[in-house]
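Exam review. A common question shows you a sequence with its structure tokens and asks you to describe the fold in words. Practice with the pair below. Do the first one on your own.
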Amino acid sequence: MLRVPVISPNGKPLMPTKASRARRWLKQGFAVVYPNDLNIFAIKLVNQPSGSQTQDIAVGVDPGKLFSGIAVQSQTTTLWTGHLVLPYKRVRDRIDTRRIMRSRSVGFAERTRRSRRINRKVSYSKRAHRQKRFENRIAKKVPPSIRANRQL
């Protein structure tokens, strides 16, 4: 159920009310629409309320990598929920682009330490090592075709 924020005539926030009750107060003249920068529909009471007691409320946050959720809840009802879209995907794409641009720049090998250069992912043909001529010399398991030839 959607709850509408209520402001007292002197500007003090009160407990939110149901949307149907807020519409009824507006129609009967008990309240006016309260403009705000957040573009949230709120009402301001015209007369002093009979009571200004407020309940304890809690804010819950569900953090995530791409999205986060926020909820404001009293003991009985949920007053407000929000869904935040975080910029992780965009930031990650920019970091990847920056890394690619740096690796392609001229003089990259001179600017980096040797320990950083030797462990990077370089294509097999560009690696600085003796080319492997026979794959089965290193492997403990002999391929079936060679094993069959030896047994003959």
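Now try the second one, then compare your answer with the model answer below.
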Amino acid sequence: MLELVLRFLLIGAVAFGGGQAALPLVERISVAETGWLTPTEFSIGIGLAYITPGPVLILAAYVGYHVKGILGAVAATAAVFAVPVVLSAAAAQVVWRLNTSERFRIFGRFASVAAIGLLGTTLLSLGLPLFDLHPALLLGAAAVLVMDQCKISPVLLIFASAFIGGVVGGLRL
């Protein structure tokens, strides 16, 4: 039981990024290193883990159950989340202490303004290429908007667009 808990503490400590990031480590530990599960049993565990939210939780319970029954399932599940919970609690304590600091509050105000500026810059850099759209795309978007707002049939919109396209295309010849 101790080995099960220690191994899942390790998984919880180093597997950042959700279920996809934890899978190779869980597989290495539970199949290759310890032989707790066969590759087939591990595959079944993966299938079970991904039919519900929280694949790491389900996979820890599955492996723990295979190793030590219900007590193993509870122990592995608690162990996989113990390190993140302790780190979160410690970080919350630090932030709580910093919130009483005037310097930290001033920094927070300026950091908020800086974050808004960065978001604005990102919006501009991602949004400016939209203005280089072909006019036909903009007209099409406007036509769909008018169709939706005025409850015009899409069939009528298609025929009107074809007619306008033919007239405009004919004028260019």
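Model answer, second protein: The CA atoms of residues 160 and 168 lie 12 Å apart. The chain has seven helices and no strands. Full marks require stating both points clearly.
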